[in-house]
Amino acid sequence: MKPVKVGICGLGTVGSGSFNILRENAEEITRRVGRSIEIEQVGARRDNPSADTSATNVTRNIFDVVNNPEIDIVIELIGGTTIAKELVLQAIENQKHVVTANKALIAEHGNEIFAKAQEKGVMVAFEAAVAGGIPIIKTVREGLSANKIDWLAGIINGTGNFIMTEMSDKGRAFDDVLKEAQALGYAEADPTFDVEGIDAAHKLTILASIAFGIPLQFDRVYTEGISQITEKDVSFSNQLGYSIKHLGIARRTAKGVELRVHPTLVSKKQLLANVNGVMNAVMVKGDAVGPTLTYGAGAGALATGSSVVADIIDVARTLTADPDNRVPHLAFQANALSDLEVLDIDEVECGFFLNMTIQDRAGVLANITQILSTNGISIESLIQQEKGVSDSVPLVVMTHTVAEKNMNAAIAKIEALPDVIGKIQRIRVEALI
Amino acid sequence: MKPVKVGICGLGTVGSGSFNILRENAEEITRRVGRSIEIEQVGARRDNPSADTSATNVTRNIFDVVNNPEIDIVIELIGGTTIAKELVLQAIENQKHVVTANKALIAEHGNEIFAKAQEKGVMVAFEAAVAGGIPIIKTVREGLSANKIDWLAGIINGTGNFIMTEMSDKGRAFDDVLKEAQALGYAEADPTFDVEGIDAAHKLTILASIAFGIPLQFDRVYTEGISQITEKDVSFSNQLGYSIKHLGIARRTAKGVELRVHPTLVSKKQLLANVNGVMNAVMVKGDAVGPTLTYGAGAGALATGSSVVADIIDVARTLTADPDNRVPHLAFQANALSDLEVLDIDEVECGFFLNMTIQDRAGVLANITQILSTNGISIESLIQQEKGVSDSVPLVVMTHTVAEKNMNAAIAKIEALPDVIGKIQRIRVEALI
C-alpha cells in the first residue's frame, strides 16, 4: 500500500514529540499499519532543538501545510482557538483529515468543526486532547461501546494533581507547592488555566459528550479550582480516610446530566485516590462493565505524542472505509445526539465535607446538627477537636448525599449562628461506586 | 444502513450476558453504530433462565448458526478447544466474521485460525478473551499503537486475585480461601486452571503477541501457581511494603522475550498492588507513553459481554472496509510478525524474595550472604526474627535483580548449608518501572 503523508503544524512540546515518535518508531509503525507514515511537511514559526528537521520540508507558514496537495492528514498542534480553528476548518475544506491535541478548540468549537467534517466526509481525531497518553477517548468511544455510561470521574489535570499530592503527602501549603510546580515547568506563570479547573473543564466537556452522546457544552460545566484548599482540609480528610483530588465528573441522572470540575474527597480505598503526582486517571462506570479505571501520563512530549500518532494510525486505517461506517466523532451518530439537559449545580447531589471553626460552647453542636437535620442532611462522620488555648475549635462534618441547594441553605443558616466563626469550607465527596 | 445480523453460539454466562446487552442496550447501540444489530439466531444445547429467548430463533445445533446464510457475524461462546475450533473454522470457511471470548482457543490455535481468516478476508475478534470487560486488547493494539511496548504485567485471573487479597488482608491460609472461592462460584471444583496459572498463561500468550508482534506461543510460557504461597510469605511481604500478586508478565529484552506467570511481590506504592478481590488490571509500558494501567472486572456475564458486544460493533463498523486496512488480528501485519526468541526461565532477570528457616547460630547469616555475593546477588533488605522458644528462626532476604540461573545456583548452595532447614521459598519481585 502507498505511504500515508502527514503534515505537522506546530513544533512545540507535542509537535516535536509526535515528530520524533513517527521517526524513531517508523519501522514498528509500518509493521503495524502495513504502509509507512511519512512526514511530508512541517509548519512551524521556529525550529525546536528537540526535533531534527534537517531532512524535512519545513515552512514558516502553517497554511502551506493545509494547502499542500500531497498531504492526507493535517496534524494541528499549534494550540489556541483562533488560528487553530481557521487552520482546521481550512484543512477540512481541502478534504484533509485532521488530528489534533487541542482540547480548548474541540471543547469550544467542536460542534461546528465536526459538522463541517461530516459534510466533507473527513475525520477529525482528538485522542491527545484528553489525558495525554491515556487512550481514554478510544476506551469510552469504542472499548465500552456496548454500555450505557452511567458516570465518569477523572484526574485530568496533572498540575493540579501534583499540587494536591504534595499537599497531602507532605502537609505543604497550596502557594508553596504552586511555586515549585512553576519552577519545575508543570505550571504556567499564569496558573489559572490549570488550578482553577478550566483545562479540566475542557477535557470533561469532551468526555461527557462521547460518554452520553450529547453536544459539546463547555459553557455549561460548573468549575471550581483548588486554590482555596488548605492544609487543614487535607489533614482532616486524611484522618477520615480520604484524599482530596481535583476531579472532572460527568453523571447521567434521571433529571439530566451533571458536568462539574471541583475538589473532591475520594476514599483512599479507591485506586483513584492513589493516583499521585502529575499522573492522570479516568474512572468510567458502564451499565454492563461496571467501574473501570485507566491510568497514565497526562502530559509530556512523548506521552501526548503517543496519542497523536495512534490517531494518525487510526485515520490511516480507515482512509478507504465508507464514511458512514466510521466511529462517529462524538461516539454517537451526529443525527442521534441527545438533548439531555445539563443540570444546574444547585440540582447536583453528593456528600459534603464541611470544615468550620466554632466557639466551643454548650449547645453549638446541637444547633448545627439540628440545622443539618431540618434540611434533610444526615451526618456520616464528625471530627471535633479538643479545646486548645483559645475558645475557638475546628469542627469537621462529613454528610451523606444531599442536593447542593439543600446544603447551601443549611450552610447559610449555620454560618449565621453566633458561635460559628467565619465562612464554612465546603468540599464535595464522591463514593464513585 | 441495513441491520447487522449476528448468531450467538453458546448461552452460558457470557452468552446470556451478551444476549441481554444486545437486547437491553439496543437503542443506545443503534445510536452509536447508525444501524441496528439483530440477533438472528441462537445456538445452544439448553435454555438459560437468565436470557429470555422466547422471541428468538433458537437451535440446538450450533452448526446451524454457522451455516445460516442470513448471519454476518458468528459469536462463539461455547468454550473449549475442540468443537469451538471446528465451529470457528467453519464460520470462517463460510465467509463469516467471528467474535469469541475463548482464551484457550486463541492462545492454542490462534495462529491457524488467523491465517485462515486472513485468507478468507474475515475478522476474528477476541477482546473478551483477556481480562473480561477491560478493553485491553484494543488498548494495546490501537490505543498504544505508536509505541514500542517494553513490557506488560497484569492481574488477569480474578479467582487468583481474590485468594491473594484475602490471604493478604485477613492473614488467611490458601486452602481456606480456596474453599470460600469455590463456595462463592469464583473457583471451579477443579481449581487447577485458575490457581496454577494456566488460565493466566492463555491470556498472557495473547497479550504478548499483540504487544510485540510475535506468533502465539502458549507452550513457551513459564507457569507457576499460587498454591504454595503461605501466610508467612504474605505477612513478611507486607512487612517489607509489598503485596504478593499472581501476575502474567511479558517483557522484551535485548536477548529475547520473557513470558511468565508466577506469584510476584509488587510494591504497595504501585496501583497494581492495590487491585483487590476479583478485579483485574493490566500495566503496559510503552516507550513513548511510559507506564499505563487499565482496571476493571475480569469476569462476569455483563462485564465479559461488554467486550463481546464492543467487538461486534467494531466488526460491524469495518464490514465495508478494505481488509488490508483493518487492524491486524495480532496488531502487526501477518507477514511482519517477528521471530524474537522466547527466553527460557533460567535467563529471566528479576529480584527475589527468599523465605527460609535457619538454625540461629553464629556465622550462618555470614555464610548465606557470602553465597549470594559470590553469585553476584546483592541484598536489598532482610528480616531476621529474634530467637523464640526454638533454635530455628525465619530469615527473609530480598535481593536486587539477578538472572534466575544465578539465583538457582545460590539457592542450591544455601539449602546445602547444615544450618538451613528444609527448602527455601522463593518468590520473584518486580519493580514495574
Global outline of chain A = elongated
Distance, first to last CA of chain A: 47 Å
Mean pLDDT across all amino acids of chain A: 96
How much helical structure, as a percent, in the residues of chain A? 25-40%
Radius of gyration of chain A: 24 Å
Describe the fold and architecture.
The structure is a homodimer of 433-residue chains. In chain A, 35% of the residues lie in helices and 25% in strands. The relative contact order of chain A is 0.13. By secondary structure, chain A is an alpha/beta fold. Chain A folds into three domains: 4-133 and 301-336, Rossmann fold (3-Layer(aba) Sandwich); 136-297, Dihydrodipicolinate Reductase, domain 2 (2-Layer Sandwich); 348-429, 2-Layer Sandwich (Alpha-Beta Plaits). The mean pLDDT of chain A is 96. The two termini of chain A are 47 Å apart. The radius of gyration of chain A is 24 Å and the shape is elongated. In chain A, helix 4 runs parallel beside helix 5 (103-120), helix 7 packs across helix 8 (174-183) and helix 13 packs antiparallel against helix 14. The first copy, chain A, has 14 helices and 17 strands. Chain A has helices at residues 13-24, 26-33, 62-66, 83-93, 103-120, 136-143, 158-170, 174-183, 192-195, 198-212, 231-239, 301-317, 364-374, 404-415; strands at 4-9, 37-43, 58-59, 73-76, 97-100, 124-125, 149-155, 222-223, 242-252, 257-267, 279-286, 290-297, 349-359, 379-384, 392-399, 402-403, 420-429. In chain A, strands 7, 8, 9, 10, 11, 12, 13, 14, 15, 16 and 17 form an eleven-stranded mixed beta sheet that branches. A six-stranded parallel beta sheet of chain A has the order 3-2-1-4-5-6, sandwiched between helices. The interface between A and B is large, with 69 and 70 residues. Strand 12 of chain A pairs antiparallel with strand 12 (290-297) of chain B.
